[in-house]
Amino acid sequence: MKNKELKILLAAPRGFCAGVDRAIEIVKKSIEKYGPPIYVRHEIVHNKHVVENLKKIGAIFVEELSEIEDKTRPVIFSAHGVPKTVPEEAINLNMQYIDATCPLVSKVHREAENLHKSGSHIILIGHKNHPEVVGTMGQIPKGGIDLVESVEDVNKYENKENKDLAFVTQTTLSVDDTKEIIDKLKKKFPNIKEPKKEDICYATTNRQAAVKKIAKKCEMFFIIGSRNSSNSVRLVEVAKNSGCSKAELIHSESVIPYEKIANCSTIGISSGASAPEILVDEFIKNLKKKFVLKMEEIEIIKEEVTFKIPAKLS
Question: Looking at the whole model, is its pTM more than 0.70?
């Protein structure tokens, strides 16, 4: 195995997006400014490595504000966004909060709110119970927004009250998956309003396009990311749908399948938007112990997007 040459096609862009970078920076800067501990509601981003490192410098992760023992300490809301009830609860508890919601998720929140105010009933395309979906649905009064997860859901959906319809989408979905659902919605409800600019985030789109470009040249494809990271799981699907049936997720508890890799001459590697580059480096370092690697990075676009952190932290 050691002398076997293995070609690696490394997808670019990959890994951290601007929203994840900003959220992690907000936690670090908050700890610098206010001292530890700082509370974070829900995992700041879906990656165990990131969460563990932030715990070491003084972040305490909770699922609900009620779990916070010392209400005098600041709390940060995760990059996925929160329902409106959460900041309201923080205000009622007299807690200081810092919102690390990704600006692209906030854009969907405002879009949904404006559509609701203009009288539209909203359909959200997304995955049930994903924190981003919970947050988006929580921007609208109960009964004003419905979730669809698939083409089948659209087939079953009835506009019983004959309302004006509009749709928004979760930002981390697969472009291909939503295309089918959107096409079906438009066919079934020709007057449905759509977002002025599509909601799927630039980073999700770019990472999927990079994987698509190289998947058919690979015998196996590995996506570095967490099991609860929607965009990482989507990348595995994208690789499979784009010509590499043996695509898998490498997460914190994964065992690298060296025997399977030994049967390949070319493999592909990418990572989800919440996976730090150090995890990609570690994966490649482990492969180097077993194979002679020939690396090629294939970049489809240069990402230069950055998001400012809140003024009170800068």
Answer: yes
Examine residue 306 and state whether it is found in any structural domain, yes or no: no
Q: Which tens digit of pLDDT belongs to each residue from 113-140?
A: 999 999 999 999 999 999 999 999 999 9
User: What is the DSSP track for the chain?
Assistant: -TT-EEEEEEEES-S--HHHHHHHHHHHHHHHHH-S-EEEES-SSS-HHHHHHHHHTTEEEESSGGG-S-TTS-EEE-TT---THHHHHHHHTT--EEE---HHHHHHHHHHHHHHHTTPEEEEES-TT-HHHHHHHTTS-TTSEEEE-SHHHHHH---TT---EEEEE-TTS-HHHHHHHHHHHHHHSTT-B--SS--S-HHHHHHHHHHHHHHTT-SEEEEES-TT-HHHHHHHHHHHHTT-S-EEEE-TT----HHHHHT-SEEEEEE-TTS-HHHHHHHHHHHHTTSEEEEEEEES-------PPPGGG-
* pLDDT confidence band for 174 (50 / 70 / 90): confident
212 and 171 fall within a common domain: no
Residues that are catalytic: 132
Quote the domain boundaries for residue 163.
Answer: 103-200
Q: Single out the residue in 146, 181, 200 at which a domain terminates.
A: 200
Among residues 182, 200, 218, the one where a domain terminates is: 200
